[in-house]
Predict the 3D structure of the following.
Amino acid sequence: MNRFSYARPGSVAEAVREVAAPASKVLAGGTNLVDLMKYNVERPAHLVDVTRLPGLKAIEETGEGGLRIGALVTNTALAYDPRVQERYPLLSSTILAGATAQLRNAATTGGNLLQRTRCYYFYDAATPCNKRVPGSGCPAIGGVNRIHAILGTSEQCIATHPSDMAVAMAALEAVIRVSGPGGERDIPIAEFHRLPGDTPERDTNLGADEIIVSVELPAPRFATNYTYLKLRDRLSYAFALVSVAAALDMDGGTVREARIALGGVAHKPWRVPEAEALLKGVVPERGAFSLVADRILEGAQGFGGNSFKIDLAHRAILRALSQAAAGTPQSQTDKRIQ
Amino acid sequence: MADLDLPSRQGFAPDAALPTGLPGEIPLTITINGERRDLHVRPWTTLLDLLREDLHLYGTKKGCDHGQCGACTVLVDGQRINSCLSLAVSRDGCEVTTIEGLAAPDGALHPMQQAFIEHDAFQCGYCTPGQICSAVGLVKEGHAHSAEEIREGMSGNLCRCGAYTNIVDAIGDMLAQETSQEAAK
């Protein structure tokens, strides 16, 4: 690990000033940042420990019937919060599908959104990587790419965003509140993470002088017909090869509104609102789901090792929508897929 | 800030090549196994390295050092975490319990330690301190009620000897005891 200076600000305003220092990084739970520092992938000159910032560890009601989640709420505290379990069970289930109890106890809501890809080449400082060293190349293209993206890739980068939590938040249309020198601003989660394009070194649209202060969930609508289906190489503690968060707002026997977000397939949680619209007013059944899956996966491209993901994602979307329509969400303990 | 040559830090190799402007040691007050310690640490010291290298508490093991194996699991403010992924300075004011702190002051083993012995829940023993700390955390969390839920809740602790079956039995035994004690109240 490289040497760095250390600050432990006592207020958000002070933290914002500290992160403006060159090559600074924010430390919260540390579960990803400390790991990356040990690999010399992250080499901050200045570490801003935000763990003591007041007011960021609470989950509060918003005026609009939603919940505001402080950036420092741990993944465990969020997943087991009774309000989240009752009103946003998709989010609770999705968080519990990720990582391990030890990691969830330390990892925070803000940090989860800002975690970096687990691309093998990004993690190996001995290899080129456009995300780590812009312009150095992408060995995953033409290399080992079983875990890589099939949607929204560029010639510069085919990495995926590894978060489970962010996939549910994408489906629920969460809004991320950030604080910077000019005050606070809100970023809808769909605009928070970026596609790699020609700047794969930038994962998100968070400014270098901004920190996340909270994540707001709109009023709940998807507490009955939902599921998070996560497919991976082992049954626990593995990142998704493909995951699907599906949520249906039902009006009797037909769909009023559908939300479908995919994890493990792109540089950000993948949503296609036009595909979701195909289910509006429709009786939820397999034929309709197949058209939706076709539309979501339009333009999907495999790179050899990950080409299997296209068919896998198609089937996962069908299965997840069936689970959501039946009101039988995937258990995150009993991994058998019904 | 002056570098302090505390007796507890004799194992620390000073980094002579530290660039100027970087901090020396930062004060840290931390309670470890019930004992309050006033220490000074460099900010890049992990909680795991503090425990092992500075405080000579070798019970907590360094396996992968990347949060993947769980051998370094300790309880911080009652919650199990990977001490290898936690910088010690960020735990200022916290209470840490390691495997050395689970037994009673008279040496009587913690019931989870006893359950691991009775169920032969280890072979080489390297992962065992992390397994036991993790299992104590799991029981305290109260979310596991079946063998399946124990396996899921313990997925952050690897055992290369493959003692998983007996580890699950040992924890299951503890959970059953907790449940019967609750019922008796």
